[in-house]
Amino acid sequence: MWALALAVLSVTALQVTGLKSALDLRGQNFNQNVERSLKQVAEWIQVSADINFLGHDTDNHVSLNEPLHRESKSIVLRMESTNIDSLLHLALEKNGVQARGVFGAFDSYDQPVYLDRRCEKFRDELVEKGFSVDMKDLTFKVYFPQMKSYLLRDGLGAFILSGILLLGIFVGLVYVFYSVKQSKHIEKIRRDLMNNLTHELKTPISTIGLASEALSDRDLQLDTESQNYYFDLIKAENKRLGLLVQKVLQASLVEKGSMNIYLQPLNIHNIAKDVAKNVAMQVRKQGGKIELSLKANNPIVQGDPTHLTSVIFNLIDNALKYSKENPLIQISSEQTDKGMILHVRDNGVGIPKEHLGKVFERLYRVPTGNVHDVKGFGLGLSYVKAVVERHGGTIEVESELGSYSVFSLKLKFDPSQE
């Protein structure tokens, strides 16, 4: 994984280096083209100024004792009588430069002898950063205020493409890291599931085997009470195996998306009462009790009796697993405008707030408190959520750590079937 990250970072570094090299090369070409353009402009101005210098009475300008100054003056006069901006732009364009620059002529003391009014604010930049070419004892300088943006804009397509590639590389790297992390998490969950499943199946199988051996051992004289005890033990463990298999099958249906829902009018109160009656003995064995407070005026909804029975059973079974000594399970209902709400409340260990949003995820088990001491696979609540949603309803959980948990099942009068 780290090798992949290093490879991606190396590619990114190469990409950035390539872009910098391309920008540097573009800058070098720009400099060469500008210098070539300046030489062309300077040659034209000087030739034109020489012709002008020879064809006029020099006494009208300066004394003959200063021929060099007279030549410079002629150059300045020629620049003043010529549209230098157009001439410079034409030369630049001919050499492949579309950028517009400011310009001026300076003497040997960097004092301007020719400087257009619009170029005056760039005087310092012209002296310090401008491209220059000599004309006799004068220096002609050009400065491009927008040179950097011009160079970037000139290669905008390459920069955008490179940026998209770099962004794609970064997003891909993040996705790979996330996928690997998720895969490790899922693998850990699956490993825990297999360990739990093996343990859960091993216990009833061993118990049934021992009880069967005891009943089939002719040397072991068993009275009627002892025989009934072993028969009841086999029956209970067999039922336990059936429930384990049922949970795995339910989870498989949810994962494959092949859960079939057959809607019909149902009285949720009756289903809750039947489930409570079936688990009452198990609750009493743990020293607890179930309280019913079914007050909804209209408990009739459209639903699948098999799946909704399993939902309520899973919620009660979950409450028993995570309850303290003497568990108290309260099942209540209330009426809403669109249907009804069934609440299943326990006095168990509770769920930390940071895990409330994850308890309905498949194979998820809260990794705090006494959770790891509780038997289970993390399949029940994901099945509950899937069934409720297929009925067009929702399920919510409220909990206080160390005190209680409440699962609220909201069902509609006439849900739409997917």
Features:
418 residues, alpha+beta, 4-stranded antiparallel β-sheet, 10 helices, 56% helix
Topology:
Layout: H1 2-54, H2 67-80, H3 84-94, E1 102-106, E2 112-115, H4 123-129, E3 131-135, E4 138-143, H5 147-154, H6 156-216, H7 224-256, E5 264-267, H8 268-285, E6 289-294, E7 300-303, H9 305-321, E8 328-335, E9 339-346, H10 380-390, E10 394-400, E11 404-412
Parallel strand pairs: 6-8
Antiparallel strand pairs: 1-2, 1-4, 3-4, 5-7, 8-9, 9-11, 10-11
Helix pairs in contact: 1-2, 1-3, 1-6, 6-7, 7-10, 8-9, 9-10
Could you explain how this protein is built, in words?
This protein has ten helices and eleven strands. 56% of the residues lie in helices and 16% in strands. With 418 residues, the protein is of the alpha+beta class. Helix 6 (156-216) packs antiparallel against helix 7, helix 7 packs across helix 10 and helix 9 runs antiparallel to helix 10 (380-390). The strands form three sheets. It has a five-stranded mixed sheet with strand order 6-8-9-11-10, with helices on one face. It has a four-stranded antiparallel sheet with strand order 2-1-4-3, sandwiched between helices.
Tally of DSSP β-strands? 11
Radius of gyration: 44 Å
Provide the spatial order of strands within the biggest beta sheet. 6-8-9-11-10
- Give the biggest beta sheet: 5 strands, mixed
What is the arithmetic mean of pLDDT?
79
* Number of H/I helices: 10
- Amount of helix: 55-70%
Give the low-pLDDT segments: 57-68, 368-372
Q: What string gives the helices and strands in order?
A: HHHEEHEEHHHEHEEHEEHEE
Return the structural class: alpha+beta
The separation of the N and C termini measures 41 Å
Shape: rod-shaped
Percent strand: 15-25%
